[in-house]
Hints:
Strand content of chain C: 5-15%
Shape of chain C: elongated
Helix content of chain B: 40-55%
CATH topology of the largest domain in chain C: Arc Repressor Mutant, subunit A
Number of helices of chain B: 11
Largest interface: A-C, 30 and 22 residues
Radius of gyration of chain C: 19 Å
Oligomer: heterotrimer
Structural class of chain C: mainly alpha
Strand order of the largest sheet of chain B: 1-2-3-4-7-6-5
Helix content of chain C: 55-70%
Number of strands of chain C: 3
Strand content of chain B: 5-15%
Largest sheet of chain C: 3 strands, antiparallel
Distance between the termini of chain C: 35 Å
Order of helices and strands of chain B: HHEEEEEEEEHHHHEHHHHH
Number of domains of chain C: 2
Largest sheet of chain B: 7 strands, antiparallel
Structural class of chain B: alpha+beta
Amino acid sequence: MSTISIRNLSKSYGPVAxxxxxxxxxxxxxxxxxxxxxxxxxxxxxxxxLGLARPNHGEVLYDGAPLEARTFERIGYIxxxxxxxxxxxxxxxxxxxxxxxxxxxVGRAKELLTLFSLDxxxxxxxxxxxxxxxxxxxLAFAVEPDILILDEPxxxxxxxxxxxxxxxxxxxxxxxxxxxxxSHQIGQVERAAxxxxxxxDGKLLxxxxxxxxxxxxxIVEGIFDSDQFSIDGLGADPGVRRIERTGRILRxxxxxxxxxxxxxxxxxxxRDVRTLDLNLEDIFLGAVDxxxxxxxxxxxxxxxxx
Amino acid sequence: MYYVExxxxxxxxxxxxxxxxxxxxxxxxxxxxxxxxxNVGDYTVPPTAQHVTHSGSADxxxxxxxxxxxxxxxxRSDRSGIQTVAVTELSARRSRHSYSHANFGIVSVTRSQHGxxxxxxxxxxxxxxxxxxxxxxxxxxxxxxxxxxxxxxxxDGHLELTWTKPVRREAxxxxxxxxxxxAMLVLTxxxxxxxxAVLAMFGLAGIIVAxxxxxxxxxxxxxxxxxxYALAMAATASxxxxxxxxxxxxxxxxxxxxxxxxxxxxxxxxxxRVVDTLNPIAYLPSFGGSEEGAxxxxxxxxxxxxxxxxxxLITVAALLASLLxxxxxxx
Amino acid sequence: xxxxxxxxxRSGVPIYLQLIDQVKRSVAVGALAPGEQLPTVKQLALDxxxxxxxxxxxxxxxxxxxxxxxxxxxxxxxxxxxxxxTANKTRDDxxxxxxxxxxxxxxxxxxxxxxVAALIETTLERWFPKEEAQ
Lengths: 306, 331, 134
């Protein structure tokens, strides 16, 4: 049974479908990264998962059971923007959490305050954006949750604190906690997540283990003498996912077990054929922005494949 | 889970306590400065007095005169409970004072052109205890309507924090209501206490009276302010930003509506009467007990018993409405 | 405990494979001695700021490849024997691949087989001067 199981989650705001048939499973102890451009539906997904918004249909199960008030004892949540009370001090926020959550760990809270150099006597309105994010991190982690749901947890933080948050996540994962987080920073996701999903316009484009995605696909690149080369027959190979040509360069995204493509490209007359590995950024951009090179009059064919 | 609301209620109460404190300080100042001429409470002749005389007449009037600190004081107390203190400056300052008179109902102060300040206290007046509660109720109703914004304040960007606690939304809202109600009752007690203290300062504590009707009228006062709180909350529970504006509309409306019930043109009066049934202010005249005139204001006959029931109903219904609205919101 | 491992998350090569490769290299080169203890999964994950399950996967594969062995409760250690054989193979693979790329590049520049061979000989001279030739 997955720790978090999301089935066909859909949410529309008026005529706009913010989320369509979103389904993922998050296993216990894993770190799941949710990627997508702004407005892709990541925050909507989080809100539906936490009962902050009502989905039009679909369900979210935590260890097989629907969300109820009790479930929040085990959940630590960092929302996308600051939701703290301006007029209260940090210390008062921690006291509020302490009274509300039975697992709140005061010692841990103090450690975390020190880690981020936060003064509990300060009022939230006197805090900078980065400090508010850090405060939200403290509030979420001090509760010692089993499940962490983090919506852009490093917004506004300086690189040192960003690294600190990543390490907190890694530490939690090493303790067997389950983490779902979203981030714009591919580098962070590449490090911390073992599984990712890519959302675009509310739809799930891609889901899988980072290692499998990286090793499962490669780019075969060929350089031709002129930009008038033919790409006959390339599309016939079922392993081919995307063909992209810019000037004299041909790039084919293909499943790693397809050896024919490199040979075919050589047969078409390429001078230099190389095989490149895909990193997460390549995977992400490839999924989200298929027309990246269109401006030079290149032809891009993008085949919808798994 | 009531922690935040306690902090919030305290922050607002502090302001009201400061206002009360300022009023109390004014009373104290008035008491101190008016010392010579207003000390009619339990009148005692100061030890430094000279030429002290006492006299009494057959109809029970007692007169005491003396000189003290350059002033000539005539203290007169008659059987019907009226006490008068006349204080005259004896100094050679023969300047002309202008005549002035101030009447505070129970106490009136007159300054003659010769510089004599006369304070008259009529101890036959009685102050019913429920009047004090009535004053307090208005004061606390303002406090309550500000507290009524509590849910609206949560909506303004804090729901992700409020609704991700291991507490059901309904329970959370209910604790807010309990905390606010307690705060209002506490403030009422403090306000009434302060009124009594001010009266006591002037030696008038004894004129406060209560009878068997007091309990029900006090109940009307308390329910009045609770009803206001509940209505303010019901009106703003779904709002995010406009809470203050809504309040700013509710208050004048609640004062104007009872007047509009008199309008015969186009039957506006009748329609307003229906709406006015929800208006806590319309139930206040039931104090006075004049049912005929008061009946004009609402659908409910304005006896004290009816008023209590109606206000209680309004309070409960409005709180329920707030709760139902609030839990349906989306963050 | 050595913390000489580095990984590049931005590389297209999965992190766990990079880690496996690094451990094998270290063993082959002697940076990791037989019987030496490796960092715990949690410690390595924190040091490198990478996902601990990735580290765990690398350790599992290393154990499957008989490069390391894990004793429950005590940690992971380089195998006292047999590890070097596998590591050597890795070493050979990497060297072969580097050479292959170099030759292919030379070929794509238009050099003939003879010209490439001559270049290789010159390069060998450079890196293995005659006095140290085996």
